[in-house]
Amino acid sequence: MSHGEKLMSIRVRVLLLSNFREIVGKREIVEEVNSNLTLGHVLDQLGKKYGRDFKQLVDPKTRTVPSEFIVSINGRVVRDTKVRLNNDDILMLTIQAGGG
Question: What are the respective helix, strand and coil percentages of the chain, to the nearest 5?
Answer without folding.
Answer: 25, 30, 45
